[in-house]
User: Fold these one by one.
Assistant:
Number 1:
Amino acid sequence: MLAGGLGGSRCVDALARAAGPGQVTAIGNVGDDLEMWDLHVSPDLDTIMYTLAGLLDEERGWGVRGDTYQAMAAAEQAGRETWFTLGDRDADLHMLRTRLMKKGEALSTVTRKLAEGLGVGVELLPATDDRLRTKIRTPEGELDFQDWFVRRGHADRVDGVRFQGADESRPAPGVLEAIAEAEAVVIAPSNPFVSIQPILAVPGIEAALRERRVAAVSPLVGGKALRGPLAEMMASLRHEPGAAGVRALYGDLVSVFVLDREDEALAGEIPGAVVCDTVMVSPERRTEVGRAFLEAIA
Ligand code: FO1
């Protein structure tokens, strides 16, 4: 499964619950990564890990449930950067990641160690070990992804997206093999512009997908994203609104497109459409939703 953001992590969880231990490989977006307090933060990889480990703050959609914020409070008192919130326990993970990467370990190696440490039963691979960063073009100029998303609350209109470093990047070890060997390849209900395209931008990944039958799950239900600015981005980037627009965006890369029941009426006009329940906000619902996915994409 190709995944980014909260929708992606919930879908990885749903599929993992339905398919059973050791059956799922998630390829995660790294375009959102940033350095905060000189720590390497990989929000999308961490959201997947925390979700699978049952640690995610589900209400907020990021970070660790019940975390404390002593380091943040100290930074604020001292007048240091606090626009990106790191809980104490979350920061400990970033410290370990940064320490191991400074010793020369690749992000994929470190991610495997972190996931094992949290008891995560899914193989989680960053799309690339190389530096790839999403940049957002706005009327105020080009912004780093988290600057746009968190610091400025994704209030600036998006006129374009690019992935710095993508052309020189290589897929992380195991990524192309996972795509080639999977029984089914699924694009999670993540934001296509800032979660999925930065994965596809790594040379070799899209070509590997084109050799396979790929299913995508719509991130828009009733024209709206459960969370995040996708509906607004569809408009500002001049795409057809709603699930049909996302379907068109994936074009012939995808042959199965999973729509939520709420969008059943669209199915007739959407190539490869299948319909099932896709909302998996509550962890209790995820096994059932995951089973329905497996059936729908089979
Ligand atoms: N999102 C916010 O809106 N504000 C934050 O301060 C914030 C901190 C944060 C820390 C660690 C982490 O793993 C994620 C964090 N996020 C925060 C979420 C993150 O910016 C986005 O949800 C993703 O990058 C978009 O998929």
Number 2:
Amino acid sequence: MKKLYKNALIDEKRQNLLVENGYISYVGEDAPQADEVVDLGGKTLIPAMIDPHVHVRDLGQTEKEDWTSASRAARKGGVAMIFDMPNNKPPTVNLINLNLKREVAKKSLVRYKFNIGITGYNLQSVREILQENPSDVAALKLFLAGSSNNEYVENTDDIKRIFDLSREYDLPVIIHTELQKCIEKYASQVANPTIFEHNFIRNRECAVRGTEWVIDLAKETGNAVYIAHTSTAEEIELIRRNKDKARIYCEITPHHLLLNESVLASAGNFAKVNPPIRTEADNRALWQGIADGTVDVIGTDHAPHTLAEKSRDYALAPSGFPGLETALPLLLNEVRKGNLTLNRLVELTSTRAAEIFKIPDMGKIATSYRADLVVFDWNKTGVVRAKEFETKAKYSPFEGMEIIKITQLY
Ligand code: NCD
Ligand code: ZN
Ligand code: ZN
């Protein structure tokens, strides 16, 4: 079956695109013969998003999310591939649990890979997974502090052993760099915390020191280190200064880019997330990191929890909120406003992730790449309405913010 999309705006040029069996077989000004022709009428086409940072929650936490709801949310948000994080019930830390996850993930409506959880205690179990050279494993995930789980690594020897294993199998290590002891120090200084103290308790110092530490280790060991949800100006500067000295990749999220503490008064615990939403100065630093190439990837950190859980008091409400359906629509609106170019957005949401995590057939609109595409009209705007989400988590700190409406062609 050959499908021809006519009159698409690709790289600012009007072009036609032929799709055969899910792959692009032609891009250009000719109109090759096809079984079906769709006129896109000058709408813009970009590659769908690859999201290396998603918490699907299937198996033990299906009240929060499962592969059906998560992958529906992904499709609706223009995300064509998700990497599922390991902090589930049961955690993805050995082959048995990975195989359980592989079974339920078959329900997914989008492509996927798995990030394997690694601690000081499960190196042998992770080796057992990697020995099979699995093509569905994207990276190893390491937490330096508890965050919706209590597995984290604190000592240098453990981290070095983890880095050795990741080097042996040439896999990036994705790191949540906040430091547990540092968070505990700040937490002990606040008697009755509210959401307004979240940014003080999970203090910027904890993220900055952790990021500095792993950058030093990356320089020493040569490992590919992917810093998850970078949230502060200091970390952006550290990464910028060291990028050419080591294999360091910088992920930011739409919420750390577009939101700051001013959202807390209206969003409350809906905006509770780790690392916390920071300040306007941090927003500006992240934008600067986008402009000068310091930032590699925008990942959603889609971290659904139930409405009932998020409605508890600050101390009891879990951190995280859904992001799959809002990322690309919000970011396209930033392009419309002139805050970044469309090319740069595509690098951040697709091309760089495909390079870093070695996905050879995604990240570009070109012959022999997958036809996982998103189409939109710059004039068709809307607003975030969480009650219309496909995710089970029907709330959002982005509620009411302007978006570009998108359609996925996959
Ligand atoms: C994530 C979750 O709920 O799984 N929560 C969050 O606040 N980001 C865990 C994480 O990514 O740190
Ligand atoms: Zn994290
Ligand atoms: Zn996360």
